[in-house]
Amino acid sequence: MLIYVATSSFASYSSLPLKLLDREGYEIELNPTGRKLASEELLSLAKDSKGLIAGTEQYSKEVLSSMKKLKVISRLGVGIDNIDMDAAHRSNIKIFTTQTSPSLAVAELTTGLMINLTRKIPLMNEEMRRGKWKKSMGSLLSNKTLGIIGLGTIGKTVVEILKGFNMKILAFDIKEDRAFSSTAGIDYCNLDKLLSNSDIVSIHLN
């Protein structure tokens, strides 16, 4: 079975994913460009594949209907807005996502960016590179209000990481997880209230 790896980041830090596929007897072809594929490139390179490991490239009705042998798409990530789900269903193509694996990485990056901004790390780094030593006081995350728009897997992981930072957390989501919010001490509210009362807003939506 031929599997085409469309996303250029797959196995970029470890060869283990490729070894696992090889061990199971799959034939593997990799994206040779090192970047996101355009639709015409995707059709040219992956037209004979039965399985596809996808990134953020577009899987439109035209693309999916042209890939006659394709049986399954495994999305490296949780978002599927780049896949025409109706077209996939009509072509009997099964869609899978990696629900948990990227969540911690994204949540840690989110936390790092918050610290970066509040402590003015990029500004101070740039000043140092220019040979300037000018103190610029940042601020603490502690006692600030964080508004999370989209309290799904990634949003919840951000909450877990920030437990020691003494932040008040507001959340907006069309599906409210009251059990989690009660345990984590989060207040659900409408979008207007969240935007009006948050010092920092973190968006985690498909």
TrEMBL record:
InterPro entries: D-2-hydroxyacid_DH, D-isomer_DH_NAD-bd, NAD(P)-bd_dom_sf. Belongs to the D-isomer specific 2-hydroxyacid dehydrogenase family. Residues 112-205 form the D-isomer specific 2-hydroxyacid dehydrogenase NAD-binding domain. Keywords: NAD, Oxidoreductase. This is D-isomer specific 2-hydroxyacid dehydrogenase NAD-binding domain-containing protein. It comes from marine metagenome. GO terms for molecular function: NAD binding; oxidoreductase activity, acting on the CH-OH group of donors, NAD or NADP as acceptor.
